Amino acid sequence: MKRIDITKTFRPTPEAREYAKWLKDKKIFERVIDGYLFAAAFAIKNNLDILPIPSKDRQHIVVNLLGLIDDDVRLSLEAAVYAIHKRSKKPQPTNSDELIEIISQYAEAGLIHLKQKWQGKVVNQIQDDIRKIVN
Amino acid sequence: MQIKLKSIHFQNWKCFQDQVINFNLDTVVTKNIWVVFGDNGYGKTSLLQGILWCLYGVKAIFPDTRQQPKFVTFFNSIAVKENPSLEMSVILTFKQGEELYRITRVVKRLVRGNNVNFKQTTFSFNKSGKEKPDTKENIESLLPESCKELFFFDGKKIEEYAKLTHSKETRNAIEQVLGIPEIRNLIDDTKKVRKEIEQEFDNISSTKNELKKVSQELNEIKDNISIKEATKNQTLQDLQQERIILNALDKEARQSDEAQSKFDEINKLEKTESIVIKDLEQISEKIKTSFRKAPIYLLSGLVREIADEIHTKTLINNKQLADTSLLEKLIINDECVCGRCIDTEVRQYLEEQLEKAKNSRHLYKQAVDNQKLHTELSMLCRTPSPDLELLLLRRDRLEEDLTETEQAIKKLKQDTDGFDRDSIKKIWQKLYQQENALKQKQDQIDRLERDIEELEEEQSKLQKQRKKLASQNKEAANLSRQSDIADRLYQAADELVRWQIDNSREIIEQYTSEIHQKITNKPEEYKGVRINQDYTLGIKQKSGDIVNPEEINFSPGEKETLAFAFIAGLNQASGKAAPLVMDTPFGHLDPIHKKNIINSLPELPSQVILLATGEDLPQNILDDLAPYIVQTHVISRKGDNRFSSVIKIE
User: Is B195 left (phi over 0), alpha (psi -120 to 50) or beta?
Assistant: First the structure.
């Protein structure tokens, strides 16, 4: 099982970053990264289809992940990627960069899905939906 | 007995060239309203001004003497073109019982070069065909000038009264109705007589030392009593003012008391608010953390799978490590697991295997890593997911509580606007000071009353003494009796003023209250009207409280309604039952008050002449009034000329 190098960076697309920022601005998540990783976890859990992310215009969500992602959240994502690749008999990522890219692809897919799902909903409704997703 | 306006004759007066308006008085008693309709600018105000001028002269129209030269413009312009030196006149005929009163005022236009002026040529009072010498005095007894605004008024006058503060002129009018000036005159006359008698006494007694001494002492005491009475009256007036201030302060203090309890409530609520904010922060923090950790709860199933897999790997590693240990044991004991000795070939094989296993540090490291990872993953799987439903519910409730608390604080702060703790303290200090001031004034009055009582006793003794001494002289005895009578008259007049004020005020209050009750749009809230010492008005509420209309936020319509009730009440109390001539008085009143006032007119025991536009008296109101209307006059114009109005009966 590959681990994430915490000196590396997540680089979302402008659209994904914008929506994750909207979630932060609406105080649904405290930070942009929290919404981004929640979307990734949601996509992994629901085995959403992922696609390679075009490198053009991708942004740096954070410069350094050190101290920003909780260790337990990071471990969950690492284990989940490992598990889902194993289930679908896909090759496991060989290094941290590959792993970060896979998590990013899930986050992008998750954000697109959640954006549609939460279209027209108010903050309290979205938070209640997160409750239902988590529980 | 009612005084009624029978006719008006205008000649060259403003827009009327030669106009006679007859008010038919041969009518049934139930009808008391005459309507004069006219559009704005057609001559309604000119009609009212004509009445005022005829009775009271130019000053009734232009109280400011600097404005009076403008009066030359009152001559009818069309007639002036034909004859620049013409005469202008107004003749009013009133009827009271069987008596007819005709008042005539004529002025002539004087032209000297470019200078135009006017001069009064006739001012006469005719009673039932006989000319009376003192026109002004006769008018004064018929319709006193000081009361003119109670008989002839317009919307502006009602607005002035509605301000609920009275000008000197208004106060005079009210006192006139109360009958105060006549009694004051009586007191002044009595004072003069007393002084004259005392003077004569002095002359007579100058030859008799003892009588002179007593008279002097008596005069001194009387002067002293007068001074003390005047001081007492002034102090009573001051006391009245102090009471008004005290009442205002008392009210303010009561309000500040309420504000104080509201401040306490605000304090309590602010404490609650701070607790709620703290709880809300804690809950929000928990929700934030739960959302941040959400991937753990979401992915726990997958994590468990991996934890289980790592666990299996750990078991295999452990088995491998256990094998190494067994090899070591076999070599050391030189014994096979079956109990036989191992031969060289086997030993060599075992040693080779052991060496291999020992050299494989990787095996140890992997075992350790797997064990650690397994522990971490197991712990992750065991992480309980938070009860987000409960957390979100609690947060929503706390937010609601916070909003409610904030709103309650905001409302209380609005209620206490204008107060702060310092100002409350100051109000109470002022109240105590005012109570002390009032007490001092009251003490002063008590002292003055005691002094006056003592002086009066002394006066009485001296009067008896003087009477005794004077009895020795016939003229002095006579003067002594006259002096006694003058003294008693003075005291009686003084008492009469007080009695008259109280009595008349009660009567006016009664009339005003009755009228107000009929015309107010809140008869269920108010019981009547109270006339204060300074003739301002108070409202008696059903609860029994008497409040200032300003305090209960009377609307302008309510104030004007109250003012109308007061004017009409004064008119009735004046005992003159004079005609009420009203020039568009309700133009700007709201429909309910307008309807109420107009509907109350038939009940007034006076002739009512309404000068109105069609807007003032719309058809629905006119229909209500129809049974009480004697005649309707309509002002129209001959052509487009604004100086050629004519009045015809409809």
Answer: alpha
